[in-house]
Amino acid sequence: MKGETNLSHEQQAGPSNQGGSAQTGHPKTPSRKSAYLLGAASGVALALFAPLLRPAARNAVKSGIRVGRYAKKVASNVKEEFEDIAAEAQAEVDLEENSENGAGKA
């Protein structure tokens, strides 16, 4: 069809909002100023509640240290178990090779 051009979705939809924020169906979208105020308010709230949050944060760090130590022990046990298995397998292979060589010579 001659003369038809493919228009992008934005061109088909008509003029866009030049304000920088897309219309999401909400009657009022938050502006940069309200986002700034929300961030500042959360910072103030965090500063006010920091003494109350400190014990919880300390307990979380302590729990993380305990989990790390437990994981280190488990990994050490697994490593030791695999080393034992590898040593046993190596001994069996050596024994089999020695018995094959001894049986072939006799």
Account of the protein in words:
This protein is mainly alpha-helical and 106 residues long. Helices cover 75% and strands 0% of the residues. It is built from two helices and no strands. The protein has helices at residues 9-13, 32-105.
Query: What is the total tally of β strands?
Result: 0
Task: Give the helix level as a range of percent.
Answer: over 70%
**Overall spatial form:** elongated
Count every helix, treating DSSP H or I runs of 4 or more residues as helices. Answer: 2
Compute the gyration radius: what is it? Answer: 35 Å
Q: Kindly report the average pLDDT value.
A: 80
Distance from N terminus to C terminus (CA atoms, Å) equals: 93 Å
* SS class: mainly alpha
Spell the H/E element sequence: HH
Range of strand content? under 5%
Low-confidence regions: none
* Major β-sheet profile: none
Oligomer: single chain
Layout of helices and strands:
Blueprint: H1 9-13, H2 32-105
Considering the chains and any ligands shown, give keywords for the structure.
106 residues; mainly alpha; 75% helix; 2 helices
Concise structural overview:
The protein is mainly alpha-helical. It is 75% helix and 0% strand.
